[in-house]
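[audit] Reproducing an earlier prediction to check determinism. Same input, same settings, fresh worker. If the tokens differ from the archived copy the diff job will pick it up downstream; this log only records the rerun itself.
[audit] input (741 residues):
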Amino acid sequence: MSTPNTIRLSIGGMSCAGCVATVENALQNAPGVSEASVNFAEHTASVTGAVDAKALIAAVKASGYDAAELRGPEDEAGREAAERTHYRKRLRQFAIAIAIGAPLMALEPFGLLPHVGAGHGQLFWWVVAAASLFVLVYGGGHFFVGAWKSFRNHLANMDTLIALGTGTAWVYSMLVLAWPTLVPPAARHVYFEAAVIIIGLINLGQALEMRARGKTSEAIRRLIGLRPKTARVLREGIERDIPIEEVGLDDSVRVRPGEKIPVDGVIVDGRSTIDESMLTGEPMPVEKAAGDEVTAGTFNKSGTFLFKATRIGADTALARIIELVRRAQGTKPAIGRLADRISAVFVPVVLIIAVLTLLAWFNVGGELRAANMLVATMTVLIIACPCALGLATPISIMVGVGQAAELGILIRNGDALQQAGRLTAVVLDKTGTVTEGQPTVTALIPVSGMSEERLLTLAAALEQTSEHPLALAIVEAARARGVAIPSCEGFEAIAGHGVHGRVDGAEVFLGNDKLMKEIKVALGDLPARAQELAADAQTPMYLAVDGRAAGIVAVADQVKADSKAAIARLHALGLKVVLLTGDNRATAEAVARQVDIDEVIAEVLPEDKVKQIEALQARGEVVAMVGDGINDAPALAQADVGYAIGTGTDVAIEAGDVTLMRGSLHGVPDAIALSRATVRNIKQNLFGAFVYNTVLIPAAALALLNPMIAGAAMAMSSVTVVTNANRLRWFRRPSVGKVPA
């Protein structure tokens, strides 16, 4: 392999957060791997580098775990089916363990069970020993196998703790049963029911955890479910249904009412109304006609149309979004990496604590030292499993990123989530972000001797080759008036200033006052008129012909209807809002007044936007940059969190840390509010996991807990973390005045 690629693996045999570090190390040490990340919540790994799947699978198996490559929806479905099978198996193992252990646990406090040393009780307890051994093999065999694999690889994990705890309890009980004289009469107690109940409760906890984990991938499943399995393609004049995999580029595809669009394309015939809500989060259907783009997975509500396929397979917007969401769900913010590092050393530390507990009780346990040593040590081993700690971060990231995708918010990594919780300032680009991005000519002010038509003709001639929004507005205005646009020679764009060229033999400049000063053109009373226009949120541009001022062309870009409400929500989140634009100051300040923006940084050259972001950061601000994702890419990269806001389907998904599929600025407070909710959820999970281990391990060492209670508590700690993370699935867009802090 010579080119980098990304491979996803399903990982089998991981039982706790300690396993994550082991598998990640094994993958990272494989030749050619540049990056490897293991998601404990999903039991998957994502590996990037010049590698192949076989080498990675071999590396994982050598570390004591199982692995299989995930290539597409079929493999994902197979993985989920295997999870469901494991879930049912864990429930059976729980049921059998409880069926054997519960009667023993219920009768023991009332003295209804025969004494171990009594002759008539020997047969009874040998039957119980055999039954409990069956539970340990059938219900707990995977723990012992996992512990053995870890031991062979010089590691320790959750399986190690459970196998040591339950195995020691069973072996001790067998010694008491077979050679009762080895221990004092007062310590002749067996713990078969404790070993059985612990195995049962842990299996129940794992089953409940699997079920809750399954809900966290719901967003991905829904996105995958958007892809139809077949497409109706027009070939050789005949329409036929073919598998989606067989659709080729430039194929003509027919879509009828009520059908999903199979691949990306451009409508060539017909019109319709299309529901794009699952991609953009916008509930209102969108009118589409010939020349408009359509996206795979969106729903055709009415009308029949024919479109040409332009992107297929993994290149469609939907496929890229699914891959982006998957990658983001597998990433870890700094707080999660800290938890992983702690988990990696947690089990060895617990083993040391267990040994110290055993030695302490050996010295202070008196006549019951053997029983006390066993109970306290077993309880420490059982209660200390770091499952909750390992799940705390990835499970919240999975749910938060999935929920964001359903709102039309694509989050690239977990660090963006964590950074969003620390933001103090949001910097907004003006054109296309706060405003519509579709300017129109609003005023033509020629000097004496120059007509409005000639002024517009010269401006349009200069701008006809430019793709700048202001240029397009001028050309569109000329065409609307029926003006014949002459050709332009020697066209030159002067960054941050304007444009220059020769039209009808005359040297023509169009741009801002900086350009006029540079070419030393006297503007007369035009600046006063320009200030009036700028104060009304219009952008004035001066036209000069052969070194003389010819007039002003004014263009206005209307503020989006919902920009003011979205900025009010940002203020409610406690954020400072800054407008950053290359437009002149008067126009920028007029726009800022309309939408209540706090600070304006205007007349900034495109290459200087990064410097302005750096200046804000130097003032101590944690900065989010919101831009169109293409022109603002350097500033988006420099900001602590970059939000690429885009309309339509061909958004710059890779431009920012977060891509907003909707054109509305409301996506920014939505993304920040959800990010804060996710980080808050992670902190709740980590706090609960740390408190659980900090409080209960000492209690276990002091023999204040029963081993069976320890087993139940350990099992339920993971379930609690997963359940808390799933609360994020109910996140809804807050309204103005009801924004969570």
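[audit] rerun output stored. Observation attached for the diff report: The CA atoms of residues 26 and 62 lie 8 Å apart.
[audit] end
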